[in-house]
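Q&A log
Question type: sequence-to-structure
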Amino acid sequence: MKTLLRIGTRASLLAVTQSTWVKNQIEKAHPQVRVELVKISTTGDRILDVPLAKVGGKGLFVKEIEDALLAGEVDLAVHSMKDVPAELPAGLHIGIVPIRETPRDAFVSVKYGSLDALPQAAIIGTSSLRRKSQLAALRPDLLIKDLRGNIDTRLRKLDEGLFDAIILAGAGLNRLGLQQRITLLLDPVQMLPAIGQGSLGIELRTDDLELLAGLQFLHHSQTAMTVAAERAFLLRLEGGCQVPIGAHATLTGSTITLTGLIASVDGRQLITDTTTGPAEQAGLLGTTLAETLLARGGKAILDAVYSGNASPSK
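Response status: OK
Response body:
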């Protein structure tokens, strides 16, 4: 491998922490290699006063990093997989998928021990349409307000009393050493996670076979299989930040169990189903599950979302 590798990363504390972990692992495995982080500002990082669903488009947190990768300005990129669109630019691939952190969402509150313990009309914060729709279905009495910004900013707003509770990815809190802030990890049965949540993806140029071989020690095949099933589901649905969809796959032996969700923005319609099959057919499982949900009413929901209507016409 080259003696100097440059990792493209977002500049947020969580992104830098994740990329620093990859940097340390590479330098430990390859003592002759020096790794530098190149911090890159993305569209999603710059637009903080508008909900992501209203910004529109895909790849809000990765496009500029991918541009730098294609231009040869960096050698690899470290992403949170939940931010990575199902379709990648020509010449790039997610070559390495390290072991997954928890995929679960975290309920975080100063006063209340669970979602059920929140009083009527409590204020709960999240920027995710997927979370909003499921929260609205579970607790239609809650006041769900947008919450953007880095993890520290979101926690500070909670601590200042602007929210009774907030929902964050458990993986981010764990990686930042903020496990003590997690009041409760939500069961995927109650709150289905984002596709790829908790997993990292190391993106490379497809022609950089030497680097791919040198990073194989970081690849976790079991995580890669489950994430492949989830991302096949995402690809078939052509989903992005503006669509309330989720999926969660687990691997037991050589069998994948995949649960998927398509929801209306207001949470009045939640279409979900589960399928199982052999791990080597992970992609087919994701595609087939997506087709099932589309046929059960998911297509009408997605058509309504893409056309700008809040919910499909009855």
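Response note: The chain has three domains: 4-98+199-219, 105-185, 233-307.
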